[in-house]
Fold this sequence. Notes:
This protein has ten helices and ten strands. The chain is of the alpha/beta class. The longest helix has 14 residues, at 268-281.
Amino acid sequence: MSKSHVYISYASQNTAIAAAICTQLEASGIRCWIAPRDIAAGKSYGEEILRAVKSSEAVVVLLSESSDQSQHMAYELQVASVARVPIVPVALDDHVPSKSQLSYFLGRLAFINAKSAATSDLASTLAEALAKRGIRRSNQLPISQRSVDHPQKNSGYVFLSYSSQDRDFIEKLRDVFRRQNYAYWDYTESDRDYHNSLYRELEQRIEESVAFVCVVSDSWRDSKWPAAEFLYAQEARIPVFVLVAKPLSRPVPILLNQQTRIDMSMDFASAAVLLERALNRKRPPSDRSDGRPNEPPSH
């Protein structure tokens, strides 16, 4: 696996500073990989993260009080540690992780202090730190501009909620997400060791998704997680799409009865067009193909 970029790990609360650091590093010739920008449309969020960390030359981890609660970052550092990828910690504030999962992987690494540094100065300091690890500047374009896997800006990811018996239906949905430039996340492909953090991990993934896709079949009622995930998505005010995957032998579950549904059980191709239109309406006007204002979410 070729190593050709620096991976940027950050908590969602630090998105703005992470994006600014990424821009500055790439302007200085250091190619970066950052989610969700570099996750290819129609690809698994978890699989893409795993591949990107393993194929990176180094992981720049942005630390703050918020990062202590990020299960995403703990997983990324775990993957980097196992793959022997160098880790470069950057402290964005005075908080230093000591009891969180992050502290285990950071060990006694020296931190770069960025709490009072301008973004441009921080990028220069980072570039010097990376150079000491053998990572040199490149004249190539940033990943997001040069890769055939990213011909358009990624629109974020959808959270897939479904019974394991409907995995075959999920496979068919990938092309729909790809055409609309969405990645996807689901539990079965997450490749994580959740232990006691399962609930918070699911909550974070739902909160950060741009849409929640609830796949319904006869097995929906018998599955442990979909109903709980659906209720959380509603509370978090994430746009919900209810898809009927297979003909139902019983009425739609009461919990979903007030939701607008797209029946994809009989004519998948025609229903996929409806789903694409619905997804398109959830985009900001500047990112939509029809240019019309958004419709309010259906909850």
